[in-house]
């Protein structure tokens, strides 16, 4: 008994070893009994596989009821993929927000058909028969493919994937601040607002520096050459001489205006004197004409007086003759 205690293994170690072996066997037997899924899980690292060959890809979320309803159908569809010469995949948008942005997923579940990098949105029924007929009967050829600028491999959708990655990263930081650190929600929002403003200022400064490097502005103060200095002095001298010439010209103009004024005054005086002489001559002529008319009017009066005086003399003579006869 002593030898058994000293040389043998403790009973509790033996029981632990048996338990571990039993768990390993149970896990191995369970994994061997479960059917292996043929649906290929896609993520940000291997999504480019859909650019080659023919694929049917489902975008889902674990909390989506509609996604849960078609889960078994999608697994059955994947089992028939070998006969249809197609690969069936799925993307969990809660784990891969970048891929949901790259494929511009707005509803759940969303199913895409891909053929050598050409993508088409599947909008048919989600039954197994319809999914198989869509591929076997090549119904996807009648569907208009996604436009080039909206294709998941385009530059624009690369940017969209980056934005969705950023939103997921911000969500994780917000959850860490409010959940783990216990910071109030509004304080977390204020932190994000300040960070956004700071990042905007930094990006603006970087853009200004890049623009200055690519298109440098002309210097306001540059070294002047000797020719430019001489030309500048000539311009200044010309600017100083112009007021003097203007003053001289103004004095000459004043003298000329004075002479013109004197000449005009002399002409006005001469004209006025000539007008006065003409008026005097006219008055003298009028006075002469009046005198002549007066003389003419007085001349008949003198004749009439002579005749009356002759009548008076004859009458007087007759009277005297009568008196003498008496």
Automatic annotation (TrEMBL):
Q: Where is this region: Disordered?
A: 241-308
Q: What are its GO cellular component terms?
A: endoplasmic reticulum membrane
Question: What is the annotated signal peptide range for this record?
Answer: 1-32
* Identification of the protein by name: Thioredoxin related transmembrane protein 4
Q: Could you tell me where this protein is found in the cell?
A: Endoplasmic reticulum membrane
Task: Cite the GO molecular-function annotations of the record.
Answer: disulfide oxidoreductase activity
Pfam families assigned: Thioredoxin
Which terms are listed as keywords in the entry? Answer: Disulfide bond, Electron transport, Endoplasmic reticulum, Membrane, Phosphoprotein, Redox-active center, Signal, Transmembrane, Transmembrane helix, Transport
Q: Domain (Thioredoxin): give its ranges.
A: 14-140
Q: Where exactly are the transmembrane stretches of this chain?
A: 186-210
Task: Specify the superkingdom.
Answer: Eukaryota
Q: How does it sit in the membrane?
A: Single-pass type I membrane protein
Q: Give the compositionally biased regions (Acidic residues).
A: 241-257, 275-297
